[in-house]
Amino acid sequence: MSDFEHGPFSRKLSAFITLSEAESAVLASLHQRRRKIAAGRDVFQQGQLGQAAYVLSAGWACSYKILQDGERQVVDFQVPGDFLGLRSVLLHVSDHSVVSVTDIEVSEVLLSDLLGVFERTPRLAAAVLWAASRDEAMVVEHLAGIGRRNAVERMAHFLLELGARLSLVGMGSRAGFDCPLTQYLLADALGLTAVHVNRVLRQLREEGLVAVKDGYVAFEDYERLTEFAGFDPAYLDQPGPLLK
Amino acid sequence: MSDFEHGPFSRKLSAFITLSEAESAVLASLHQRRRKIAAGRDVFQQGQLGQAAYVLSAGWACSYKILQDGERQVVDFQVPGDFLGLRSVLLHVSDHSVVSVTDIEVSEVLLSDLLGVFERTPRLAAAVLWAASRDEAMVVEHLAGIGRRNAVERMAHFLLELGARLSLVGMGSRAGFDCPLTQYLLADALGLTAVHVNRVLRQLREEGLVAVKDGYVAFEDYERLTEFAGFDPAYLDQPGPLLK
């Protein structure tokens, strides 16, 4: 189980809680039912009943909603260490769909698994609540972005957020990160058209802030980009664990 | 404590969990530090460190974000039974502000209070996670609304959501609900101008769907409004508690 003790899920939760050996072992027990899913498959769909959640251990996923008229709104992307559909386990009916963006590896987590974890180590209940709060804070940022940021600031903020999330699990830095997202996915996340995404990315590159090319996001001037986007990563990481 | 055992917080959580007497007593213990706050006051502000959360037992509140350029995006409104700033307790730095819309009554909840609850009754940890998931599902709906619904559908969906939330705590029905929200607050929640809100409300009234007047929202044709907005209340309530 040692690979999971230092896997992205533990690594991410460690930002909130200093994990004891017993707590790490309990977390590792959530990785018993593992599945590999190829890129482009629905992991679960909006409207499904009694859905399980998943912990993503490798690859990228995308959560989205289909509206009445068939239009899609991307809610967020998930990277290693994130839950897929944690909300769906608790809401009885899943309010969203999740699709694999790349080939992914997941571990299935049932409501009974979560309750078992909470009974054994109540501190982990707080850690899971932290993870859910962090997910919500990201959706709030996306709402504020679509509601109040212009397209260029919105894209800049979004790329910085992804970079900070990936850094936390060792997959990114202030230099940049590998990014499998197409312009269509970015467009559906940011409320733009693919043509508009292309124009916005060109503007950010011409201003020497960030360059997106061949599946890599290169932060060319991290400080200036952060200032431009008004990005404060406090909702994603902490100066040290709140629960020692 | 009996008034809290049947207060809006217990009543709301009862949608998810069949509360035992012991669990009801633990919930009631969260109402020890009570405060009254006048209308129009900041309960806490974005950027505050080590913020407490609150359970709202009377009145309406509003959570919002201030963007870099000073613009405001309303994230959601809170009604009795809701948490204020649950996220802020866990994120170390509060990512949003909360203001009282009316005079309100709240009970302060610290991270240590939550941990105490989780230790005593792990099932309540799942119930709090459910409440957080429901809050997140609402923000997701608001994101989908601003991203993909037109202004009239967006308003219709929003009013139906508020009605369903208030019904769960005995403050609304399919006939309608008392609503203290101004057109300015509605505008900042829905990404519209106050003038646009006025036009949208007139359109909904002229179509015989919903009438907003003198602080009351009257659903004039609940079924047709629900169909028009594509509203499915599954994310707000459940056919019965998931945890018996």
From TrEMBL, chains A, B:
* Annotated ranges, domain HTH crp-type: 149-223
Gene Ontology molecular function terms on file: DNA binding
Q: Does the keyword Iron-sulfur apply?
A: no
TM region(s), chain numbering: none
* Listed InterPro entries: cNMP-bd_dom (IPR000595), cNMP-bd_dom_sf (IPR018490), HTH_CRP (IPR012318), RmlC-like_jellyroll (IPR014710), WH-like_DNA-bd_sf (IPR036388), WH_DNA-bd_sf (IPR036390)
Q: Which UniProt keywords apply?
A: DNA-binding, Transcription, Transcription regulation
- Spell out the CDD domains in the cross-references: CAP_ED
Does the keyword section mention Transcription regulation? yes
Give all residue intervals belonging to the Cyclic nucleotide-binding domain.
Answer: 15-101
Q: Name one GO biological process term.
A: regulation of DNA-templated transcription
What name is this protein filed under?
Crp/Fnr family transcriptional regulator
Name the source organism: Pacificispira spongiicola
